[in-house]
Amino acid sequence: MDRGALGRADASRRHRAVRLTQPSPNSPSGLGTTASLAIEAGRQALDSAGARPEEISFLVLCTSTPDQLMPATSCTVAGALGITGGAITSTRPVPALPTE
């Protein structure tokens, strides 16, 4: 295997997505807020990757259901996870408009 393929395989392991399979216990409905779900997913991702919060250099949260407009939900998530460096951003998907 060439060095490029090894690098891509390593990056894939470190950047895998985490899917929550259990409802959040932090909400009366058991469903949780966007932040509580993202925080739990972030904790699972850090554990799965064997990474520490200070190793994270870029956090992106994309949701159509933010908890509030300001501060951005990504800031809440980063703070709860202990991510203090790097770039943090939130994005909101925009539906495609018909072209006709």
Describe the fold and architecture.
The chain has 100 residues and is α+β, with helices and mostly antiparallel strands. It has helices at 3-14, 34-49, 73-81, and strands at residues 58-62, 87-91. α3 (73-81) links the parallel β1 and β2. α2 crosses α3 (73-81). The longest helix is centred in the middle third of the chain and has 16 residues, at 34-49. Mean pLDDT is 75; it is low at 1-22.
What is the structure about, briefly put?
The chain is of the alpha+beta class and 100 residues long. Helix content is 37%, strand content 10%.
Name the descriptors.
100 residues; alpha+beta; Peroxisomal Thiolase, Chain A, domain 1; two-stranded parallel sheet; 3 helices; 2 strands; 37% helix; elongated
| Largest sheet features | 2 strands, parallel
The outline comes out as elongated
| Helicity level | 25-40%
**How many helical elements?**
3
- Cα distance spanning the termini: 48 Å
In total, how many beta strands? Answer: 2
CATH class: Alpha Beta
**CATH architecture group name:** 3-Layer(aba) Sandwich
Domain count: the total is 1
Task: Trace the largest sheet across and list its strands.
Answer: 1-2
Low-confidence stretches: 1-22
SSE order and pairing:
Elements: H1 3-14, H2 34-49, E1 58-62, H3 73-81, E2 87-91
Parallel strand pairs: 1-2
